[in-house]
Input
Amino acid sequence: MTAETGTPQDTFLAAFRGGFTAALRWHHLDALWERLRERADAGWYLYALGETPPTTPATADQVLAFITGIDTLLRAEHKEDYCGIVYADNPQAPAFIKIYDPHNLGVSCGFSDNPPLPGWVLSLIPPVDLPATRVLPQNRRRWWRKLFA
Output
C-alpha cells in the first residue's frame, strides 16, 4: 500500500512519525499557541492518549479551552526556564502537534529504541489509537474530562 492509497491509520501514523520541531523556549510556545488560536476552527482533533481517540474534530471553543488549559498545566508542572516538550510538524503552519507530559518525559527528543508517547496530540488528521505504553494517571484523566465537561 502506498502513502497515496494508505488507510487512515497509515496516514495518521506517517504524520505521527514524521519530522517535528520543538518549541524550545516558552516564547516559541506562545507563538505556536497564537497560530493555533488563529486557526482554532480548522478542524483540529484533540487526542489525550489513554482516552478513546476522537472521531470528530473539536469545536473552536474546545480548541481555545484546550490551549488555555494545557498551557497552564505545562507552565505549572514543567518548572524549567525552557519548554522543549511541545513539538510541531511545522511551527509556522502546524497541522500536527505532540505535547509530552512533564511527568512522563523519558527521552522525548533525540534517539531512543522506545521513546515515550506524547500525552496529547492535536492533529488535522483523524487520530488512531496509539499503543498505550503507560497507564494514564487518574489525575490526567480527570483533568482531560473536566476540560470538556
About this structure: The longest strand covers residues 45-48.
